[in-house]
Structures are given as C-alpha cells and as structure tokens.
Amino acid sequence: MYDQTLADHWQIHPVDTFRQGIYPRDDEGWFPAHVPAHWQQLSGFEHYAGRVVYRCRFPWSDAEAADQAVRRRWLRLNGVFYHSRVYLNGVDLGAHTGYFEPHEREITGLLQRENTLLVEVECPDERNKSGKTMITGVFSHWDCLDPQANPGGIWLPVELHHSRAVRLARGRLLTLTCNDRFAQIRFDLEIDAATACDATVRLTFTPRTFAGEAQQIEQQRSLGRGPQQLGGLIKLREPRLWWTHDLGRPDLYDVTVEVLVDGHISDVLPITFGVRTFELRNWLPYLNGERFLVKGNNYPPGDMRIATMDKARCAADLELARNCHMNMLRVHAHVDHPALYEAANEAGILLWQDFPLQWLYASSILEEARRQVRVMVHQLGSHPSVAIWCMHNESFLIEDTADEGIWTRIKMQLSVFGPNWNRNVMDTQLKAIVEQEDPTRPVVRSSGELDITYLREGTDGHAYFGWYRNYGDLRDAEVMQKRFPNNMRFVTEFGTQSFPNLESSLRFMPDPLTDEAITQLATRHGLQAEIMDNWLPWRQAGSLANVIKLSQDYQIFINRYYIDRLRNNKYRPTGGIIAFLLLDPHPAVLWSVVDYWRVPKRSYEAMRMAYSPQYAYCVFEPRMYSIGEAITLALSVVNDARRGIVGAQLEARLSDPGGNVLAEVRHRVNLPADCLPIIVDRLRLTPTQAGRYALTIGLTGVDHEIHQIYEIAVG
C-alpha cells in the first residue's frame, strides 16, 4: 500500500567508478537534481552519459507505531535507466537491471528519523550498434531520436510503501473466454509472505465506465514463507466487454485485489481491467470474436525525455489517433510510460506492444532478455488495450538507416536472408516464453520478416518503396504485391519523411535552409537529406515553405499509395494497416504526420481521410503513361463501420491537362456493414496529349465526406 513519493531534496553526483555506497556526506560535488527526470534535463548534464549517484535525504516517522510488529516497509523505484544499485542508510539493497521494471526492496527496520538514500545509476551510450548490450530499444539506437541523447536517470517516481505480513508486489488479470453470461478470468499474483500462513485472496470488480453492481470473489490459499507466485481462475457474471472506440465502448473495471490474514487486510493492489479477447487468424484481427480492419500508426516515446510524459499528454496523443480513425498504435521498440497504457484503455485504442529490442544485440543479453520479457508480459498483461506482443523490431543489421552504401546494403541483406542469431535463437526463444506466459495474445517473433513463397514464412510487412533504395521505387512495390502478396497481410511500417509546418520548422531551422543548417538537421534532427534527394528536388526549392510543401506532398502521395492498396485488399489478405510514424518525439524532420508540438501536418489530414470508415478511391499504377495507351480507372468504395450506409453518393470527374472534362459519373451506393471493396464504375482514359490528367472523386452521405484528386501523368 502506497505511503509517499520521494520527490524532493534530490542531488546528483557524476562519477567514473562506483564506490559501494561510500560518497562524500557534505554537498561538495553534488548538484541539485529532479526525480523523476533524465539527467540530461539538468543544467550542466545536457551531454552526459555514463555513471552517476543520486542522493535523497528525507525524514520519516512511523505514524502507526502500534502496528510496528506486523508492519513491513518497502522502497519502490518504478523506473531507472538502466543499471542501478540502491543503498539506504548505508545498507546495500541490491542491484537491478532494466529500465521499465519497478525495483522493489523490503526496508523494514532500516528507516530512521533522518534517512539517506543513494542510488548508483549507469547508462552508457551504446557504442557497438551491431552488438548492443542494454535492452532499451529505441532509446539507445534509432533514427527518430537525437543520437546525442542519453536516457539515463531515475525516470519514474521513487515511493515508500507498507504492508502487513503479506506483500502484494504485482498482479495480472487475463480474459480466457467471455460471452454475455460470464467471463473466465485468470489471475496471477506475485506475493511475499513474512511467514507461512493461511490467507484469503479477495478480488472486487467495480464498474468504472458504466452503472452496475460490484462483484466480489474470494479464494482461500495457504502461503509459504518468502516470495512466491499465486494464480487461479474466477468467473465474472454478465461482463461488459471492452471494445475499440470504432467498434463500441471501451468499458473498464476497477479491480481491487486484497490479501487478508486473520481477517485483516495485509495488502491491497489496484488493477485497471477490461474484459475482451483478441485473436489473429491468418493475420486477420478479431476483437471479441468480431473481425475488423486494423488502421493505425507507430507510436514513439511521446517525448524523447519520456519522464516528462503524463496522463494528460498521453490522452491528447491518443485523441489525435482517434480523430484520425485509428484503432491501433504500435508501441515501437520500447515499453512506454505507464500513463500511455491507462490512456489507451480509456480511449479504446489497441496497442501492438514491442519488446525493447531494435536491430542487433550481443549474445550476452540472452538470459537478461528472457527475464525481462517475462516481466513485460506480466507488468502490462492486465491492460485490455495491449493486443499483440512482438519480440524484436527488424532483427537484422542496421547501424545507420541513412547509410545506403553498397557494402552496407550487402551486409544488411546477408543478415536478412542468412543465419541470424538474434532472430533464429534469441527471438525464437523469447516468443516461446511469451506464448507460455500469456496464451491469450498473439506473439510475433520479430517485426519485418519478409515472406517469400516456398522459401520462408514471414511476419508483418515493412514497405519503404519510394524512400529507401534497399526497397526500390513504386514499380518494385507493384511487383512485390503481385509476387509475394503475404507481405501485405499486416503492414506495420511505411512512409516518407516530411518537414513540419512552417511555424514549427522555424523553431529549429532557418529560412531559407543553409548547408550548415541541413548538416545540423541531418546530424541531430533526423533528416535523411541524401535519401530525400533521390525523390525530391528539395534543395532547389528556395524558400522553407516550398521545401515543406514538396516534402508533405510526397508524403501524402506515398501514404495514400499504400493505404489505397491495402484497403483495396481488405481481408484478401490485408488485416492491418499501420503507418510510420504518428508524431515526433523531439523537434525533427521524420516520417511523422504530427510534429513535436502536436501540430498536425497536411499529411495528417490526408491520412485522416484515407482512414475514414467509408472511403472512395482509385487504384492504378503510379507511372508515366504514353499517349494513346488505354488506362482503366476503377472507382471503388469500402465501408469499415459496423453499420450499413444507405444512399451514399459517389461522384467522379476526369479532366485533361487543360481542365476540360472528359467524363463525369454519379452513383447512388448502398454499403453493407464492414464490407469488402466494391467497384462502382470504371472510367477508361486514352490520353491524346502529354501532361497531367486529373481524376476527382467525392463521396457524400457518409460519416466523413471524401474529396480527393488523383493525377495521371502522361508523357
């Protein structure tokens, strides 16, 4: 049970070596610190990496001295990047590794009227990018974060807790089955008992989002002395199910888990819970038994300094996703702030949860990875928003995504198609562990494994045709879709970089761009300048406003290209469309559709339209056509909503390069609920002159009107 947070009187002391808790008692060499925070947020530590010692001096008095004989005290560090060792009043409480797992130690009998807490923290920079040793995912190696940033520090609160003889350290609830009558729920508890005893486990389910009676379930258990795991099955009557915001209501329960000994409450653990099932059947998603189409985006840390995130900021990000008709976010190669999961539960947004592995690691991390992956699935398992576990993002050789040299590309391809310890040994073992620890969720071995017919079975698809030369251009994308269609089953990355809107861009770059500014943007702010050169004449654009327009226009074009084709293959075989990237975690030029200051780009509005529940579009090859070449333009509509639409109006107009109307059609369309794409009409164009023809499509009488223009290039 929570007592207090140690939020004040923190100091920090940089060191070259740790001294087993023995440090100067005066203030010399100590600097004021903030907790929770990252040390690079502190003045003078902006570029620091390595080792520090935190110190907190705090008073304490036992307000319940009469219960001292049965009361136990606990110190809980909720999150530290990355290695730590804790000392309280000179007593070594042990070491811990891992940034997202709470580190809890018993301190019964150690507290005094005046206390000194020391925390040795180590978080070095990962120098060997192909053999990393810290399980920090994107925080130590990613093209979407400042490469000079180091996440080191105590990034979540430090707390004091108490219990009686039995401590409830952690708990998890899983929905095994559910229907209108009951839900079968499995509970798993991590308990520490001071002595062997008989105990009562009581779970109270109280509706949070709807009116209803609380349900209470009790079980009698015999406990041994010391740390142990306790599990069981319970039934919840007439459960209200949790749905995504587009399918229903994300109804939640506040669950109170209590352990009672001799009729007295020994400890209490609150859990947010929602009753739901989620499956992937041949990569088609089913929520509570109902098939639906996943539409979403990748979610980075909401801020490069993740300690600065809170429930309000996370909720605002999820509202941006909801307004863009997204029902899933991929938590990209990291475990996020606890506030994100609570906000996703409430917003009705599913989460594809990556384990924090990004590109290649040294084999020495295997045992620690096996331990931490168990921690992740137990720590996050109660959240109904968490739908999919993924063990690794792109488990092949990438050191710098902006490096497209021939030898770099050859080495990467060898790690993709050849033997790979990360994928074939570590990721395979982690997947087996998670499948055993959580049988209720699908588990993906590693994200971005190519599926090649008769050669290997892949996983989800990554498609950067039109950006990286390793992939090729959109002509290569057309070939891939035809020859290897399974790579379209569930696509979790695609997109291009674009500059933020002008007002935001001016906050960290000049107008016009100088060579020095471009170098700085490439070095610190993510811009892949040479790759952008392959597709856009942006260096000759003149003003910053023109650069922004060019890059956002191209991003809109590429994103629509993928979304149109994936929606056109809805359920045949596409089950999921997840773009890259929702927002910037720092001021940057990235693949995002929302910038760091949460200002949507034009590409956000374009994605919002492309993800609309009712959508009208046209798929044709994005190439230069010849004069006299016959072109068929199929006008298609699709409905993802759970209700049918009667009397929608589809209008289309085809114009030549001079603006003259060549064809115009109007149709009244009825759209069944969650239907497959329907071809309403086909226009045939035989161009007689060079230039850009325009196909204008409008869809009205639907939830969100569609108005868009396709250009057909003829030369």
What key phrases describe this protein's structure?
715 residues, alpha+beta, eight-stranded parallel sheet, six-stranded antiparallel sheet, 11 helices, 37 strands, 18% helix, Ig-like_fold, Beta-mannosidase_GH2, glycosidase
Task: Describe the overall structure.
With 715 residues, this protein is α+β, with helices and mostly antiparallel strands. 18% of the residues lie in helices and 35% in strands. The protein contains 11 helices and 37 strands. The chain has an 8-stranded parallel β-sheet. The protein has a 6-stranded antiparallel β-sheet with strand order 3-2-4-10-7-8, with no helix packed on it. The protein has a 4-stranded antiparallel β-sheet with strand order 1-12-5-9, with no helix packed on it. The radius of gyration is 28 Å and the shape is globular. It starts with a strand and ends with a strand. The model has no long low-confidence stretch (mean pLDDT 96).
Strands, helices and their partners?
Blueprint: E1 2-5, E2 10-15, E3 31-32, E4 50-59, E5 72-77, E6 80-81, E7 83-88, E8 91-97, E9 103-106, E10 114-123, E11 153-154, E12 158-163, E13 166-178, E14 182-193, E15 197-207, E16 215-223, E17 226-237, E18 253-261, E19 264-273, E20 278-281, E21 284-287, E22 290-291, E23 294-299, H1 311-323, E24 328-331, H2 338-347, E25 350-354, H3 366-380, E26 386-390, H4 406-417, H5 421-437, E27 443-444, E28 461-463, H6 474-483, E29 490-494, H7 502-505, H8 515-524, H9 529-533, H10 544-568, E30 576-579, H11 602-610, E31 614-618, E32 631-639, E33 645-655, E34 661-671, E35 678-685, E36 691-700, E37 706-714
Parallel strand pairs: 23-24, 23-30, 24-25, 25-26, 26-27, 28-29, 29-30
Antiparallel strand pairs: 1-12, 2-3, 2-4, 4-10, 5-9, 5-12, 6-11, 7-8, 7-10, 13-14, 14-17, 15-16, 15-18, 18-19, 20-21, 21-22, 31-32, 32-35, 33-34, 33-36, 36-37
Helix pairs in contact: 1-2, 3-5, 10-11
